[in-house]
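Bug #2210: token dump truncated for Adenine DNA glycosylase?
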Amino acid sequence: MKFSKKLITWYLQNKRSMPWRKTTDPYRIWLSEIILQQTRVAQGLPYYLSFTETFPTVFDLANANEEQVLKLWQGLGYYSRARNLHATAKYVANDLNGVFPDTYIGLLKLKGVGDYTASAIASICYKEAVPVVDGNVYRVLSRYFGIETPINSTEGVKEFKKLAISLMDHDEPADYNQAIMEFGALQCKPKNPYCIVCPLNDSCESQKNGKVTVLPVKLKKLKIKKRYFNYIVLLINNSQTIIQQRVGNGIWKGLYEFPLIENETIDITKITSDTTIKNIIEDKNHEIVPYNEDPIIHKLSHQHLYTKFYIIRLDAIGVISKNQKLIDYKDIKTYPVPILLGNFIDSFFEETVVSE
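Reproduced locally. Full output below:
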């Protein structure tokens, strides 16, 4: 039995029951694929259910405001995915009358849709014989064929795509693509793969040559950048606080946060000399207390954030900037924030502030 048929047979016997596997609606398949990019199924499933319940159609998603979309996405990370999701929904709803492109080439033109996502949608929804190549697929192909070309190199991307095309099952493209991804997720796992009971172990090159643990090969990652965030949490009259929206093209664009001083070292006695904080406090009586002595380390793909929170209590404020908002404590959870701040808000505002 050839490679593709063995995988499909395995898949039909072992596949997990997922809501997106019970439909060929391109809207729902697209939604699931965007959510599952760089996200484990267990983490992505609740988000998929929330999105499909809140936005049953592409028109519902298109008509939402960005803050609503970002709030629902909160905790998934890589927030550009959410912004692209929203932009594409508006394009499909308004320019394409709610109808998704029905070819791989057409799907590639959608914002946020790359080779992998276009292949997945085209094969699952329209039975087009185009192969998916994601992390799971790279791992299966690299191990099975004993390929040592780095999967994140230009040469590797071309080599694995060419191989994937040659292996494509033209009779059952949807089942084959889902099979090889599921096989990589459940059977040919990154660590401790189930080689003993693998249906491909009699012809797997890495199993034969003892290289299962060293494949696939990846080029060294970029150097991790360290950043030092000092958040100033203002508690005004025991009922209000100030938040601001992040702008620019850096991390967390469009999300909200507390006033921020980015500096490796910070003198608690000089926090009020920062222009933004100085304008807010003016000459009002205030008290500054550090919330955490040791920084909270929040790890992103290419940077680690060393974060401290400083609590300032005061009865009144001076001037706030245009992108800042004075809000009631009770409304803070309605705003989309990074998970780092979401965790702080849960612990501090619920346990400390609300109990006062």
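Output looks complete on our side. Residues 69 and 309 are 27 Å apart (CA to CA). Marking as cannot-reproduce; reopen if the truncation happens again.
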